[in-house]
Predict the 3D structure of the following.
Amino acid sequence: MFKSIGRGFLAILFLLFLCQSGLGQISFPVEKHVLDNGLTVLICEDNSAPLVTYQVWYKVGSRNERPGITGISHLCEHMMFKGSKNVGPEEHARIIQANGGIDNAWTSFDMTCYWEKIANDKLELAINLESERQKNLTPTLENFTSEREVVKEERRMVVDNSPFGAVFEQMLNTAFTAHPYHWHVIGYMSDIENITLDDLKDHYGVYYAPNNATAVVAGDVNPKEVMKLVHKYYDDIPAQPLPPKVGTVEPEQRGERIAYVHKIAQMPAFMVGYHIPEFGHPDTYPLSVAARILFTGQSSRLYQKMVYQDQSALQVAGDCFLLQDPGLFYCFAIMQPGHTAEGGRNTLFEEIERLKTEPIDEKELQKAKNQLESEFIFGLQSVSDKGFWMGYYQILLGDYSKLFEEAEKFQQVTVEDVQRVTKEYLNEKNRNVVVLVPEMPEEHTTTSESD
């Protein structure tokens, strides 16, 4: 009981700290600087613990690729750990860990991020290491060939041998016919196999420039001292010509598309996706509320209907897949034995139609908005979380301060807004369906000599 009260009290204090002038008004101090070479630097001083996160965000992801080199952004991320002029292969992570820190990286459709979390008196070490591999990466044919095999195995694990991974890739292939979101971040196997070391060096040279990057520092730091270190390690990295813009716009979809994935699996499943606007568009807020009401969490309409009442599904989930360019409103469900994906889809469509025709109750609306707001606010507690959202908004919207408006925008959503966006976007001609058709593994029999 005491622990529960204590955690609740701390949560209230945190909310009071963030909410300055009314519901949804979130703010914490951030300094923004831009070096002469174009590097954007965001600094958030947070003295709650003697820790700091250092993150470097690059505006490059699978969105910036083309057929023939799909997956190169993710492969480049792997190669950034394979050594530079002054740091040996895998030494970056070992140095950080030896100094009590942790580090990692990830690649998405729109961006690539490298990060460290370490004691604040080790910040210079992290800045030194990140600047080193940004300007002095030295990939060799040997470690490139080896790491390419690692990425191929990763592809097999997350896509080729995963029913959900295969369904997700097919959804991308089906929903996006022209835009680079057509392919999975990890790329096609044939492209991974055929990417050359020169391809990778060219990609690194174009996109890993300071004027295509944002450095984020959040934690127990002095901003003036941070900038001294940033200037020390980054001023000698020259700016490069801006990367080519992604000009392809996904054409308007004019009819439902259905695809089937035959895969070894135990249960049938399906995924449905509707085209929606890009991250930051005003309509994404009521769409997020609609997703929350329909299928996010065990109290959602679809979960209650399909998992509890009908017992037709093992799992139902969905959300808005928000990207730099228009993304998807999606739902994924795994059916129970004896129930079909077609039946599950019909239940989903019925609930979507009900959302269009029957105004939702104000209490249900407020619950969804409160959940979205509170999750966003509590997702800003740690220095790593603050750093993440600062970098995310800076990369996608070009303005980190937009994150301070997020919670309020959820609270501004009305019943009419939810009905309007569901009617506009969640319609049959804008719908993509991928059905997982379970197959049994082939039986391999052997005959002994005695037979």
